[in-house]
Amino acid sequence: MLLPAITERSVSFQVGELFYRPASRIIRDLGVLALAVYSAQRGSESESVRVLDAMSGSGVRSLRYLEEARAEFVHANDLMLNYGDHPLRRNLEPHLKAKRAVLTAQNAVDLYMEAHLSGERYDLVDCDAFGTGQPHTADAWWAVKHGGLLYLCATDSLATAGANPAKAYVGYGAVAKYMPACNEVGLRLLVGTSFREAAARGLHAQPLFAFFHRPSSSFRVMMRLRELKAPKSTLVERRLQHVARCAECGEHWRVPSTRLGEAHTLRRCEHTADASLAGPMWVGPIHDGEFVSDMAAEAARRGWAEAAELLGLMEAEASAQEGSGVGSGVGSRVGSGVGSGVGSGEGDAHGALLFYHLGEVQRSLAFAGLRLPPIDALIKMLHGGGYTAARSHTEKKANEPLSPICRTPFLPYPTDFILFLSLSLGAHHICKPRRNQHSRSSDCRRS
Ligand SMILES: C[S@@+](CC[C@H](N)C(=O)[O-])C[C@H]1O[C@@H](n2cnc3c(N)ncnc32)[C@H](O)[C@@H]1O
Ligand SMILES: [Zn+2]
Which residues contact 192 (CB under 8 A, 6 or more apart)? Predict the structure, then answer.
C-alpha cells in the first residue's frame, strides 16, 4: 500500500503500516548530530564512516545518517523486513543501488556477533530497542569500533521507577526504587548497565549524553567505546554506586557498594528517617560537556532550535554534575563547610547527583514562609552561594519549551540550600525543610 511520503528534516520516506512518531524526531536529531561531531573529530583522512542501524523500522535513521551525518555506508536491519509490505527496501532503494547501504532481516544480536567474528565493526551502532534495552545493551558492544558510538534505548520507565523490581534486576542488575527523580535514575541505570556490560567484555565505555524523551517515556543514551581494555577497578567503584534518598528531606547521597551496610551513616542530612536505596547505577556526569557543546554548535549551525536548546541544558547539567559550578565559575562548596560527601575525592564525586523537583523546593520554602523565586534567579542565587545548580532536561515538557515551571534545577544539599535561600531572601524564620507538611513539629527557630 503506497501512502503519501513523510518528510523529516532532509529525508522523505514511506512508513506503510509501521508506526511513525513525529515527536521522536529529536531522538533522531541527536543521533545525527552525534555522528556529525564524531565524523568531524575523525577528520577526512581516515576510513569511511560505517553505521549499523540494527532495528531500522522504516529506515528513517539510515536515511538521515547517510544524508545528514557524513555516513558513507549504512547496514540497515529489521527482523520483520520480509513480512508483509515492508517499506524499508523501497525507502533505501537509491542507496542500495549506489552500494552505500545493505539490507538484512536478521536478529540484531546475530549481527553483533558477526561483526565481532569478521572484525568489520561499525562507527555507530544504533539499537532502537524496547523494554530494558537488553540484550542489545550488552551484546551490541561486540559490533562497535574502537572510539565508536553506541546509541541505546530503553522504554520501561515503570520498571526503572520501581514498579517491577524483577524486571529492573534482570535488565540492569540493579534495585530500582521510586524517587521523584526516577527518570534520571532510569538514565543512570541504563548508562551504568552499558558501562558494566562493556567492562565485562574487557572494554572501557563512557557516556556522551543521556536523554529522557518524555513523549515516548524512553531513555536514550549515547555511549563511546573509549578503550579496548577494561576500566580500572577504582574507576568502576567510583562510577557505579548506589544512591540513597532521605524519606524526610529528600536529600540524595552516594553509597559505594563496599559500604552498603553503612548507608545510613553516610547520609548528608541530620535526619534519622528511612532512606530508600537504589542501584548500582552510574553516579558520574551523564553527559560529556565538550561533546554536547560541539553537538549544540552543530545544531545551531543547522538551525535545529529544539536540539540546540536541549543540548544547552545538557551542557549546563554536565557542568553541575562535574561539580565545577555553572556560569559563575564558582565551584561546589565542598571543603568550605558544607561537607565532604561520600566518594573518592574525584572531581565528579561531589557534583550534583539526582535533581530535586521544584515542587519539593517550593513546599520547603513555603513552610519557611518564602516564595519560590523565578528559576533563573534561584540558580543565580545558588551559584552565588557556591553551589552547583542547573536545570534538568529530564523534567522539561516537550510541548512547553519556554515554560520555566516545567524545568527543575539540580540542587545539591536540601537542608543547606534552604537555609542559604532563607538567608538570601531575608527570611524571619530559618526552618529545616520537612517533607511532611502536615507536621508542625519541624525544627524552626527565629533568626
Ligand atoms: C522502534 S522500531 C524502529 C523505529 C526506527 N528505528 C525509527 O526511528 O523510526 C523497532 C524495530 O525493531 C525491529 N526489531 C525488534 N526486535 C528485533 C531484533 N531482535 N532484531 C532486529 N530487529 C528487531 C522491529 O521489527 C521494529 O521494526
Ligand atoms: Zn534528611
Answer: 172, 174, 239, 240, 279, 280, 281, 282
CA of 442 from ligand 1 middle (Å) equals 53
Could you tell me the three cell numbers for 335? 571543603
C-alpha cell of residue 340: 565532604
CA distances from 353 to 110, 317, 323 (A): 37, 10, 10
- Could you give the CA distance from residue 149 to residue 136 in angstroms, rounded to a whole number? 13
**Residue closest by Cα to atom 6 of ligand 1:** 56
| Ligand 1 cavity residues, CB under 6 Å | 28, 55-58, 60-61, 77-80, 107-108, 128
Atom from ligand 1 closest to the CA of residue 21? 9
For residue 124, report the phi and psi dihedrals to the nearest 5 degrees.
Answer: -135, 130
The residue whose CA is least distant from atom 17 of ligand 1 is 79
pLDDT tens-digit profile of 312-346? Answer: 999 999 988 887 533 222 222 222 222 222 222 33
**Inter-residue contact 127 to 108 (CB < 8 Å):** yes
205-259 pLDDT tens trace = 999 999 999 999 999 999 999 999 999 999 999 999 999 998 888 888 999 999 9
Number of the ligand closest to the Cα of 18: 1
pLDDT greater than 70 at residue 394: yes
Of 79, 125, 219, the one to substitute when testing ligand 1's pocket (max ligand atoms within 8 A of C-beta) is 79
